[in-house]
Amino acid sequence: MSFNEQFQQFPIIETERFLLRELQPDDAEEYYNYFSDHEVTRFWGYDSPKDVKTVMNTFVRFSNAFKRKEMIVWGISSKTTNKIIGTCILGNFVRGSMANLSYNLAREQWKQGIMEESLRAVIPFGFHHLELHRIQAAVMPENIASIHVLEKIEFKKEGLLREYSFGTLFTDTLMYSLLAGEFKGASVIHLADK
From what superkingdom does this record's organism come (predicted)? Predict the structure, then answer.
């Protein structure tokens, strides 16, 4: 399937413990609860949402960006509870070339291998289904946990961008990337039935 065909309906990806799915209005409160935590947003570059209504508007923007083929925002949903505990995002697509990767996770879910498991499903989708050549991730040098996750999934550090635009901030930023030719992960991912 081509890049454009991947945007005909939202791709739901299944991992061992999680469904990566489109965010729904019923998810707004959980998203607000974890994304209002300063520790979660400390390295995000944007302010926390003001309230649940702001989150609902954000979900509409995510949906519209998907329809315009600009971004895919997966909510990480526990198979046991169906609650959203984080997100994985591929966006700023240069078709046939590259995308930016970003992600976040509720603080009480840290250090359980959740983000590594989720990204090991999202990245093959980017390379095999979207046919990307490069996936890159920008990370603040102080964000040791995120750097650790990127290195575990084989991303390579390219260098330091000085006072780079990171959300609403200008801060030194490390750039990591993974190229299709370097990718050694799964060639098949499980796209869940709708």
Answer: Bacteria
Global confidence as pTM? 0.91
Average pLDDT on 24-42 reads: 86
| pLDDT reading at 1 higher than 70 | no
Kindly tell me if the per-residue pLDDT of 187 is higher than 80.
no
48: exposed, middle or buried (Cβ count in 10 Å: 0-12, 13-18, 19+): middle
Instruction: Spell out where the chain has E strands.
Output: 13-14, 18-22, 71-78, 84-94, 98-105, 134-139, 156-166, 169-179, 190-191
Amino acid at 110: W
CB 77 within 8 A of CB 18: yes
List the chain domain ranges.
Answer: 4-191
Contacts with 183 (C-beta within 8 Å, 6 or more apart), sequence order? 123, 124, 127, 154
Domain 4-191 has CATH 3.40.630.30: yes
Q: What is the mean pLDDT of residues 116-122?
A: 96
- Helix 52-67 × helix 28-35 angle, to 10°: 110
Q: Rounded mean pLDDT of 52-76? A: 95
Residue 19 neighbours by CB under 8 Å, 6+ apart: 12, 13, 77, 79, 82, 192
